[in-house]
Amino acid sequence: MSIKADNITWKIGRKTILDGVSLEAPPGRMLGLLGPNGSGKTSLLRLLAGLKRPHSGRVTLDRSDIGKISRRSIARRIAFVEQHATTNANLKVVDVVKLGRFPHRSIFSSWTKVDEEAVESALARAGMAEKRDDRWQNLSGGEKQRTHIARALAQSPQELILDEPTNHLDIQHQIGLMRLVSGLPITSIVALHDLNHAAMFCDELVIMQQGRIVASGAPQDVLSEDLLRDVFSVEARIEASPYHSRPQIHYLK
Ligand SMILES: Nc1ncnc2c1ncn2[C@@H]1O[C@H](COP(=O)(O)OP(=O)(O)OP(=O)(O)O)[C@@H](O)[C@H]1O
């Protein structure tokens, strides 16, 4: 059991943004959330993280309604890196990452070895150890993104939710991040635009269009030339990669 959305509907004013969405994140696996701009990915992730409440249906965490779980308890379990995550104070990288330990500590507890190890391991895994003493404001866009991912990892979550985590990263760090997340023994839900990266690393895919889920399952079962045409409005040919056997999409000019 992990995060589950059960027939959720969510509106802004009179506009329906999510319409009857149901999904269950496979425990310990990486779920890729795909769809064109405006299809509802960010909205869905915010509901799954408990930041917004659905107008109907419900989101559950291990069968409990997430709306009834305290913010602190949620933060001990779920780490969420939003698309335009920012940090206001001009902290050092290591201090931003230390914020990830906040949900696990009380005001009376001192900094422990477990906290220290979680921060050091997160800095190393996100490739930010060498920049640990740099000021947040002086980082490049990709380094800021990797710092937020390190902060999320330092949170030692059981569920990791990432909204387009690779969008500022160079190709080495895009692949590195996808490899890192797919190798973690935790449940991850990741909104992505790169369909080839999603096919290569995700265990399951969910495809959204206009606030609805239109396909879900293993990459090789979900990605088809018809789906790319109907949902993403692109012409493409798909074959099994000879290198990793996952679907490989060749876009046509
Ligand atoms: N505050 C808002 N007011 C009105 N409409 C909104 C608001 N926030 C989001 N929407 C609408 O909700 C829809 C879904 O947006 P959302 O950001 O969830 O899509 P997305 O799939 O994450 O898009 P992208 O790939 O561009 O990041 C869009 O049509 C968007 O215009």
Any overview of this molecule?
The chain has 253 residues and is α/β, with parallel strands linked by helices. The chain contains 9 helices and 12 strands. The model has no long low-confidence stretch (mean pLDDT 93). The protein has helices at 41-48, 71-77, 93-98, 113-125, 141-154, 171-183, 195-201, 219-222, 225-232, and strands at 3-12, 15-24, 30-34, 56-61, 64-65, 78-81, 159-163, 187-191, 204-209, 212-217, 236-240, 247-251. It has one domain: P-loop containing nucleotide triphosphate hydrolases (Rossmann fold), CATH 3.40.50.300.
Total domain count: 1
- The fraction of residues in strands falls at 25-35%
The CATH architecture term is 3-Layer(aba) Sandwich
Categorize the overall geometry. Answer: globular
**Helix amount:** 25-40%
Any idea what the radius of gyration is?
18 Å
Give a brief description.
With 253 residues, the chain is an alpha/beta fold.
Keywords:
253 residues, alpha/beta, Rossmann fold, six-stranded mixed beta sheet, four-stranded antiparallel beta sheet, 9 helices, 32% helix, 27% strand, globular, binds adenosine-5'-triphosphate
